[in-house]
Each structure stands twice: as structure tokens, then as C-alpha cells.
Amino acid sequence: MIFFSKIEMVIQKNVEIGVSNIIPVMSERSEYRVEDSERVKRKLERWQKIATEAAKQSMRNKIPSISPIIGFDEMLNQLLQNKHQVIVPYENATGQGIKNVVFKQKYIDVIIGPEGGFEEEEIGQLRNLGANIVTLGNRILRTETAGLIVNALILSETDDLG
After folding, report:
1. For residue 120, what is the enclosing H or E element?
2. Between 3.40.50.300, 3.40.1280.10, 3.40.50.620, 3.40.190.10, what CATH number should domain 6-157 receive?
3. pTM score, two decimals?
């Protein structure tokens, strides 16, 4: 019997449905803190192996990459540079759900908050970058569930699920 940690399950399931890149981000409320660089290296190797196995299992031609862990500010800089469409599910968002978003770009970055959600200031920074802050309805979902649901909904809306 195999027991997956949350991040390992997130990687496996999102790769299976078609996510092309996963970048772990440390935000204000992130519970997972890593100080030891050797431990980080081992974790990244393990996560990449999980992504590779999940891609093979789901018969994907391209192996998604698992990027090194970055900070929230570095993520904001990357979002500014790559100019992809950005979707951020947020528990305090109202009105706009995934079905209300007009998908106008080939590449979509989905930003999933940590357990406990994003700080209001972080949401403000994402909103200022032009991110689509969306609601997932009345339910408060765990981080690992929210990511899978959002990615599946986007793939369905963009006809990428077949």
C-alpha cells in the first residue's frame, strides 16, 4: 500500500489530467517549510519521478516538469514576465466562477493557495497583475482538491478533455 503526501498526490493527479508544469510556491500561510538544500533536492527528484510515472501511466507524450520551490514574490515576477492568463480560486471571491472566464490564451497559470488560503494582500497583488480571481462556490476545498477541480474545469472549458 502506498501513502502519498499531499504534494505527491497533487503532482500525480494533475499530471494525469494534463497539467504541463508544476511550480511549488511558498506563500505567507504555507505550512511546508524547507531549509535543508539537500532535502529539497531529494524532494524535487522524487516529485519529478512521480510526474514521470503519472505521465507514462496516462500515456502522455510530454513529461511535465516540476520546478524548484520559489517564493511568492518570485512567482509574481514570473507571472509578469510570461504574460499567461492567470486563474486564482479564492474562498472569499464572489460572482465570477470558472465558467465566467473567457479563455483567450493558450497558456493558463493556475495559482492554488496553501492550507488556510492566501492573505488578502497576496490576492491584491495577484489581482493587480490581472489575475482572474474566481470562486469555486459555497464549498471550502482542501488545497489538493481545489487544484484538481480547477484544472479539470479549465480543461473542460477549453475542450482539452476531449
Report:
1. helix 120-128
2. 3.40.1280.10
3. 0.86
